[in-house]
User: Fold this.
Amino acid sequence: MSGINKVILVGHLGKDPEIRHLEGNVTVASFPLATSEMFNKDGRKVEQTEWHNIVMWRGLAEVAAKYLFKGKLVYVEGKLRTRTYEDKEGIRRYTTEVVAENFTLLGRKSDFEPSGGQGNTGQQPAKKVEGDSTVVDFKENEGEEDALF
Assistant:
């Protein structure tokens, strides 16, 4: 039986995605994602934040470049990958990244409107973005917010 390598994260982007174009017109997007959890320690609520390095390839990277910005709340599915590289001093280093397979933008409808929009604070249905899909329609399922709960 083969193993399972599956990561699911919900968090906020720590900075705008860094977009690179490699040989063969391959697009790569990378960014840090912060996930936080609360727990009680000695009767006080404590927040613990973990930072994850996210990497997106090809069409998914192009969609990320268009819609993801620092502070955005996003659901990411992917798998863990550990790779090696040499730093500037020639020392071999290891890094573990989440290679995203798809993501879903989360948040309020106003988060997806241009600045100066109506400021609607109603919940926007999430939109899933996978693989090489570049069509994102945030009006899908509009008005069905109450059906989610």
Residues 36 and 64 are 22 Å apart (CA to CA). Residues 116-125, 132-149 have pLDDT under 50 and may be disordered.
